[in-house]
Amino acid sequence: MKYDVPDEIERKLRRAQRLEWWSIFWLVTIIAVMYFAMGSSQAMKTAWIEDTLSLLPPILFLLARKFEEKEPTRKYPFGFHRGGSLGFFLAASSLAAMGGYLLFSSARSLMMQEHPTIGNVTLFGWDIWLGWVMVVALIYSVIPPVILGRMKKPLARATMDKILYTDADMNAADWKTGLAGIVGVIGVGFGFWWADAVAAGLISLDILRDGIRNLRISVAELLDGAPRKLDSAEVHPIVDEISDTLARRYPGHRARLRETGRFVRVDLVRHDEDATPPEAIDNWRVVEVTQELGDKDLS
């Protein structure tokens, strides 16, 4: 059967889908503007790549939603809830890999002392320093993502969607990329050739940090680890809440929780042959509670 969530959560998921479609639209316009304003600036190139990478989370979120709604099959008897986990892992891996590459590229530019040149461009019959065009493009690249990120974050927390939260976090922090890029471009204009590469390095460090953090969370999820928080690799409070509830109902037993996308499956490990079937848990994230015979202690 399909997953079942409260109407309020379903409404928020549909709203999140609409926001992700808007994100894709605005990001496509930003990528085009940044591409034509990029010139030879390393900071602009890095910011452009980050904006291009920003397309990945909304696309993966929309794909995961499609898979999440599919019925279980003979080959996939537990359904496709973990499509969100896979999408989160792919997004985190891409961020980490690209962040590492961009950091290496900016460090190489510094070591080789590459001097970027930002010349003039003719617009509407006027000669304008290309740096000002870059600054305007960077300001434009910040405004839509920051607004959308702030709108998506509460939806991500309510629906416990890690892809959506990663996307919202990247969007809301996009002002740092824009600010670093602006400082780098203006620094070149003042003759500080290294400012461009340093700005690119700061942007790439931010990408790498997000990628590594999310990679740790996504790997734990794929390895049937205990449910993690949205913004860190720490265990989510739902583990203690459900474990305490089951401990009161079934003294001497223990619960094992694992995450499948936004949902949680619970295994109640019993220590006697005549245990009663486990009752349902009053939490929309818990989609199944099963019972098995096992040892008391974790090895």
Can you describe this structure?
This protein is mostly helical. The chain has 2 domains: 216 residues, Cation efflux protein transmembrane domain (Alpha-lytic protease prodomain-like, Up-down Bundle); 56 residues, no CATH class. It contains 9 helices and 5 strands. It has a 3-stranded mixed beta sheet with strand order 3-4-5. Helix 3 packs antiparallel against helix 6 and helix 7 packs antiparallel against helix 8. The mean pLDDT is 85. One of its GO terms (molecular function) is monoatomic cation transmembrane transporter activity. InterPro entries: Cation_efflux_TM, Cation_efflux_TMD_sf, CDF_Transporter. One of its GO terms (cellular component) is membrane. It is a multi-pass membrane protein.
In short:
The protein is mainly alpha-helical.
From the structure above, extract its key features.
299 residues; mainly alpha; Alpha-lytic protease prodomain-like; 2 domains; 3-stranded mixed β-sheet; two-stranded antiparallel sheet; 9 helices; elongated
Write the CATH architecture name of the largest domain: Up-down Bundle
- Which class do the helix and strand fractions yield? mainly alpha
**Percentage of residues in strands:** 5-15%
- Within CATH, the superfamily of the largest domain carries the name Cation efflux protein transmembrane domain
Low-confidence sequence ranges: none
Tally of helical runs: 9
Largest sheet: 3 strands, mixed
Order the strands across the largest sheet as they lie in space.
3-4-5
Number of domains: 2
The CATH class of the largest domain turns out to be Mainly Alpha
Could you report the average pLDDT, rounded to the nearest whole number?
A: 85
What's the gyration radius in Å? Answer: 24 Å
Classify the fold: give the CATH topology of the largest domain. Alpha-lytic protease prodomain-like
Shape: elongated
Cα-to-Cα separation, first versus last residue: 34 Å
Q: Approximately how much helix is present in the residues?
A: 55-70%
Count of β-strands: 5
Quaternary form:
single chain
- What is the N-to-C succession of helices and strands? HHHHEEHHHHHEEE
